[in-house]
Amino acid sequence: MTWPSGSAERGAAVSEFDLLAGLVSILMLAAMQLAFALHVHNTTTAHVLEGARLGARADSSPEVGAQRTTDLLRDSLPGSGEVQVVEVTAQVRLPVLGPFGPGEAVTVTAHAYAEDQ
After folding, report:
1. H/E/C letters for each residue in 36-96?
2. Which residues cross the membrane (predicted)?
């Protein structure tokens, strides 16, 4: 049986569109995430520099600069106000051969935001 010219590829455009639409969507979301990360980085850098300049002035203090930075970040970036952070540090011996290892310890520190109660 022979197929008429072009009928073997009938419907291929739909599956090609699905594959390309998924790929384009992923690339678009990645670009948007990168743009948002750059925005947060640049905004934070600008606010920290402004606070540092204010704190370094002769008629000011470092505490005033730190407070200005905190105020700017809280007002311009969502979720960047003062938060409570829990810090946990552990030291363990590094086991090289079963329970036997060198006398030095590995220090691991972790940080997490404290949840509201």
Report:
1. HHHHHHHHHHHHHHHHHHHHHCCCCCHHHHHHHHHHHHHHHCCCCCCCCEEEEEEEEECCC
2. 20-40
**Which residues, given as ranges, of the chain have pLDDT below 50?**
117
Query: What are the tokens at 4?
Result: 């008429």
pLDDT tens digits, 6-32: 566 677 777 888 889 999 999 999 999
Exposure of 61 in the CB half-sphere (CA atoms within 13 A): 3
The answer to whether residues 104 and 91 touch, using CB atoms and an 8 Å cutoff, is no
DSSP reduced 3-state for 2? coil
CA–CA separation, 16 and 27 (whole Å): 17
**Number of Cβ atoms within 10 Å of the Cβ of 65:** 19
Q: What is the pLDDT of residue 29?
A: 94
Structure tokens at 108: 């691991």
Tokens read off for 18: 């699905």
